[in-house]
Amino acid sequence: MIKLVWAQSMNGVIAKDNNLPWNIKEEMQHFVKTTINHDVLMGRKTWDSLYQKPLKHRKNIVLSHQKNLQLPEGVLLISDLNNFIKPYQNSSKELIVIGGREVFDLVLPYADELIVSYIKDNYVGDIYAPNINSDEWHSTSVEPHLLFDVVTYVRNS
């Protein structure tokens, strides 16, 4: 199973200068709860935004064209997305994709589920969330919070 997880503002912003433009503790706790003890895939820019430190209690996988990218022990570097995701397709084994936008665009056609936090405010940014096409996706749950709502989408049959 392949899941994409992101937070976006009401105007669709997911990042500014390669960082989250908000600091909402409860939303970060949701992210941790959603990704903990899972395989997480990210692009090199997202990896850089984490100050090149692996997320604890997760298998960190970085997708990059830079074949000699230096990563800490235990962090997996991949350059062939299609071969990498095959074991997760039609499987109970979960891969959670955490960004950035380029990686979301590459993996979205293979995704089974989207978990989106909608921050209840507009932000200035330079990277925007992927479009969720209602012909392809439908929401299955909404989890309301004070400053954001989490909506889960599954692919239409």
TrEMBL record:
The UniProt record lists the keyword NADP: yes
PROSITE patterns reported for this sequence: DHFR_2 (PS51330)
UniProt protein name: Dihydrofolate reductase
Gene3D superfamilies: Dihydrofolate Reductase, subunit A (3.40.430.10)
Reaction catalyzed: (6S)-5,6,7,8-tetrahydrofolate + NADP(+) = 7,8-dihydrofolate + NADPH + H(+)
Function: Key enzyme in folate metabolism. Catalyzes an essential reaction for de novo glycine and purine synthesis, and for DNA precursor synthesis.
Domain of life where this protein originates: Bacteria
Matches recorded under SUPFAM superfamilies: Dihydrofolate reductase-like
Species in which this protein is naturally found: Mesoplasma lactucae ATCC 49193
Enzyme class: oxidoreductase
